[in-house]
Amino acid sequence: METSIEGEERADGGGPGTVGVRAGTATAIPPASLSPSRASDFMQCPLLYRFRVIDRLPEKPSEAATRGTLVHAVLERLFDAPAADRTAPRAKSLVPGQWDRLRETRPEVMELFADDPEGERLARWLAEAERLVERWFSLEDPSRLEPAERELFVEAELDSGLRLRGIIDRVDVAPTGEVRIVDYKTGKAPRPEYAEGALFQMKFYALVVWRLKKVVPRRLQLVYLGSGDVVTYDPVLADLERVERKLLALWDAIRLATETGVWRPRPTKLCGWCDHQAHCPEFGGTPPPYPLPVRAPESGGAQQGRMGPD
Ligand code: SF4
Question: Which CATH class is domain 149-243?
Answer without folding.
Answer: alpha beta
